[in-house]
Amino acid sequence: MQRRQLLASVPALLTGTTALAQDEAAVRFGDPRRTLAPVRANPDRLIDMEVCTRPFRAQGPRIEAQRLHGKHVVHHYGHGGSGWSLSWGSARVALPLILEHKPKRIAVIGCGAIGLTTARVAQDAGLKVRIYCKERPPEVASSRATGIFTPDSRLVTTEHATPEFAHRWEAMTRSSFRTYQSLLGLPAEPVQWRDGYVLWDDVPQGPSHEPGEPDYPDLYSRIRDLRPRSMPLQPHEHPFKAAHAMKITQLVFNIGSYQRLLLDDFLRNGGEIVHREFTSTRELARLPEQTIVNCTGYGARALFGDDSLVPVRGQTARLIPQPEVDYLLFWRGHNLSMVPRGDGLLVQAQGEHDFGNADARVDRAQSVAAVERLAELFS
Questions:
Q1: Residue range(s) defining the domain that contains residue 38
Q2: Whether residue 14 is found in the same domain as residue 32
Q3: Secondary element (H or E) of residue 218
Q4: Using an 8 Å Cβ cutoff, are 33 and 41 in contact?
């Protein structure tokens, strides 16, 4: 489900007013054995703010091959806000193209979510893999993602969401989902399920996307069975300063530990990483590998001249970790989400002009305002 749709997918049948219940230490709701620790939402507790550029293509991810400068180049990029979520299934779709000329070793350009996962899928297929990259985790752009399983977030426009696309997307999503279930329970919890709450003040109206953005299709209905059913809450069953609430359960990535897992597995399986920045596709001709997988994300716009890529700016901020805060929050109508991770409480708010915006400079005022809105829920 797209994050905007998640904020908008609230049942219209709930009405009434909020009964706020809390005590000095924690707030109690629903199951009397369960307590919610309040978030210490104070801008003074901000420890990091980052900006990433989501690589959106109206046509959806580019997964195709071409002959370029004497090399077999497989393009695998353009996943919008769904890179981490779709990475395993998408890499498996790209694999037959990678194996087309029966290579024994390949090059992967890019060490982000798509590059690392593509490299691991290729290794599992018996290939030797060398990654060429300007940056490696945690410097890559995908390190700055929110870390929620949203496999259709800014992935494709309604115009291009053909039945064939939807079928392939569903297959990729289910393939990725199966892999993530195999990673549950590992040390440092790279992947885990989290309970959370969608909050809103009135019945949602109008489109679920931001002004100036294209229409996105509802793909998530095809895989609704992959997520536990949401549960509307009565006013006395939640403690938040919002008229309505719905309890959800969501798959979450602890991106720092997940990246380390991927890197460790890649190197353990004989992978190599070479620091290199490419400024022209002609430089590919000098690589020893004959098969090259382009996983450069938004970087493909400059390197490969792909003007179909649209930047979508995303800024996140982290509050000092609170291990006792183990729930997600999505506050519809207030442009706010909070994700508890091992490296802190990640707070995100979309800007009014993020779509088509490649500005990677941090706007501290935007994150401070988001934290202050978060504090209102516990006032």
A1: 3-53+191-253+310-376
A2: yes
A3: none
A4: no
- In terms of Cβ atoms closer than 10 Å to its own Cβ (0-12, 13-18, 19+), residue 135 is middle
182 inside domain: no
Give CB contacts under 8 A, 24+ apart, made by 13-20. 13/232, 14/232, 14/244, 14/246, 15/244, 16/234, 16/235, 16/243, 16/244, 17/235, 17/243, 18/235, 18/238, 18/240, 18/241, 18/242, 18/243, 18/244, 19/235, 19/236, 20/239, 20/240, 20/241
The span from the CA of 378 to the CA of 162, in Å, is 44
CATH number at residue 223: 3.30.9.10
Q: Whole-angstrom Cα distance, residue 76 to residue 93?
A: 10
Can you give the pLDDT at residue 67?
A: 98
Taking the C-alpha atoms of residue 67 and residue 161, their distance in angstroms, rounded to an integer, is 27
- Partnered with residue 25 across adjacent β-strands are none
Query: Final residue of a domain: which of 267, 290, 308?
Result: 308
Q: If you ran DSSP here, which 8-state letter would residue 284 be given?
A: G
Could you tell me if 233 and 239 are in contact, meaning their C-beta atoms sit under 8 angstroms apart? no
**Residue 315 within any structural domain of the chain:** yes
Q: Compute the radius of gyration of the chain from its Cα atoms.
A: 21
Q: What is the chain's percent helix, strand, coil content, to nearest 5?
A: 30, 25, 45
Do residues 196 and 94 both lie within one domain? no
Answer for the pair 72, 288: CB distance below 8 angstroms, yes or no.
no
- Yes or no: say if 26 and 37 are a contact pair by the CB < 8 Å rule: yes
What are the pLDDT digits (tens) for 284-313? 999 999 999 999 999 999 999 999 999 999
Return all residues near 238 (Cβ < 8 A) that are at least 6 apart: 18, 29, 30, 197, 199, 245, 247
pLDDT one-digit tens code per residue, 208-229 = 556 679 999 999 899 999 989 8
